[in-house]
């Protein structure tokens, strides 16, 4: 009588475990009972699998090849039908839709706060052009930072990192949106707004993006980039820049520091792994001090806006509690320097900016350029009344020439 040693096969489709176990069964050959027992053993370990028999067989055949080559390419082919079915979603991801929405909101606030008549067509074109230019800048930024985004948990799911799109798609999207956006700003708004948009595009993609891996000065430069969109809105409404535009730009410039420094605090491992030179990584103490310092700058700027005829005095009073609480959270972040305080500061910054813009709009001092001119004329007349009548000058027209003669009104 001969015996057959049968090894128990272990194969798990769900967990990907396969192999031969150490258990074995000795079966006698030549009797029907043993053959039936062998069939029972071979089928009892596979009946739970939902895969068809052909799939199981193919899987087992693939397992036999131990050295299966792995696809380690940085870029992979993207199916054409996949791009067509998700083109809208991919474009939103390339443009960083939430960040672009914030940029457009600040541009709209700059237009609404400018002391000039409101024109809905120009307002809409300014918002659309700003959004398209911002989308182009974000697409180019992702194109340059693919190797570094792949190392960060926050950015590892971007479309270029995952291979959902190829680099040529990102460049093509940026070329179309930048050309369209700058054309809309130049022909639909004015050349100054288009020039500010073009300068901001170059500054973000060609200076700020590479500087992120070179120096912590990238944060200050990035704040300048964030302060330009409201200036674009102001220039789109008035055709120029004045003290009011600078006040709004200063608020946006200073707001970037507590917002980004609080955000980067909990992302220090990611930034360090990717090689980004952020204040939170290279100088944590400076990161907290700068965040606290610029909340104070925001408070001072809001108070000064009333004296610069951008808003009325009520804005200084109404914005004070909002700014003081912002300073308090920045102080807590500076003092505790933990993830909880940084998270609270970051979340409140998302509420602080829209609330501050709304208060500025409600307490806007001049709603048209004519009101501004009338105010200047009144101020000039008040200044003129301060001089004695004997020292006044009367301008008399004499043909094409205008001369000034000193008159003594007391002698008349």
UniProtKB/TrEMBL annotation:
The keyword Mitochondrion applies. The chain crosses the membrane at residues 97-114, 192-211, 345-362. GO terms for biological process: heme A biosynthetic process. Its EC number is 2.5.1.-. Its main location: mitochondrion. The keyword Transmembrane applies. It is found in: Mitochondrion membrane. It is a multi-pass membrane protein. It catalyses: heme b + (2E,6E)-farnesyl diphosphate + H2O = Fe(II)-heme o + diphosphate. It is an enzyme of class 2 (transferase). NCBIfam families: cyoE_ctaB (TIGR01473). Belongs to the ubiA prenyltransferase family. This is Protoheme IX farnesyltransferase, mitochondrial. It comes from Papilio xuthus (Asian swallowtail butterfly).
């Amino acid at each position: 009588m001969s015996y057959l040693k049968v090894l128990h096969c272990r194969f798990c489709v769900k967990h990907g475990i396969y192999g031969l176990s150490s258990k074995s069964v000795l079966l006698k050959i030549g009797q029907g009972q043993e053959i039936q027992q062998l069939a029972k053993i071979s089928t009892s370990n596979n009946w739970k699998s939902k895969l068809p028999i052909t799939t199981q067989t193919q899987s087992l055949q693939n397992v036999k090849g131990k050295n299966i080559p792995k696809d380690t390419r940085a870029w992979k082919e993207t199916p054409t039908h996949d791009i067509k079915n998700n083109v809208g979603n991919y474009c939103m991801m390339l443009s960083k839709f939430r960040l672009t929405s914030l940029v457009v909101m600040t541009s709209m606030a700059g237009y609404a706060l400018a002391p000039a008549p409101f024109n809905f067509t120009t307002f809409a074109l300014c918002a659309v052009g700003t959004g398209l230019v911002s989308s182009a800048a974000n697409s180019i930024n992702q194109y340059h930072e693919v190797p570094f985004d792949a190392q960060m948990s926050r950015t590892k799911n971007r479309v270029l990192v995952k291979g959902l799109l190829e680099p040529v798609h990102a460049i093509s999207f940026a070329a179309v949106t930048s050309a369209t956006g700058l054309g809309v700003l130049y022909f639909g708004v004015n050349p100054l707004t288009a020039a500010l948009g073009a300068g901001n595009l170059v500054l973000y993609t060609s200076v700020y993006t590479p500087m992120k891996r070179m120096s912590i000065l990238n944060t200050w430069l990035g704040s300048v980039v964030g302060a330009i969109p409201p200036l674009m809105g102001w220039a789109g409404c008035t055709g120029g820049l004045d003290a009011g535009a600078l006040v709004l730009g200063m608020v946006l410039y200073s707001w970037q520091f507590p917002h980004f420094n609080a955000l980067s605090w909990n992302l220090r491992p990611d930034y360090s792994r990717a090689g980004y030179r952020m204040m939170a990584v290279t100088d944590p103490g400076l990161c907290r001090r700068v965040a606290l310092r610029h909340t104070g700058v925001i408070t001072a700027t809001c108070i000064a806006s009333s004296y610069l005829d951008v808003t009325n005095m009520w804005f200084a009073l109404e914005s004070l509690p909002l700014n003081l609480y912002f300073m308090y959270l920045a102080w807590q972040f500076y003092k505790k320097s933990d993830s909880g305080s940084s998270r609270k500061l970051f979340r409140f910054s998302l509420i602080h900016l829209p609330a501050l813009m709304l208060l500025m709009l409600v307490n806007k001092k001049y709603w048209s350029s004519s009101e501004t001119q009338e105010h200047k004329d009144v101020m000039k007349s008040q200044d003129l009344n301060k001089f004695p009548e004997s020292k006044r000058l009367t301008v008399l027209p004499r043909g094409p020439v205008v001369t000034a003669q000193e008159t003594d009104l007391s002698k008349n």
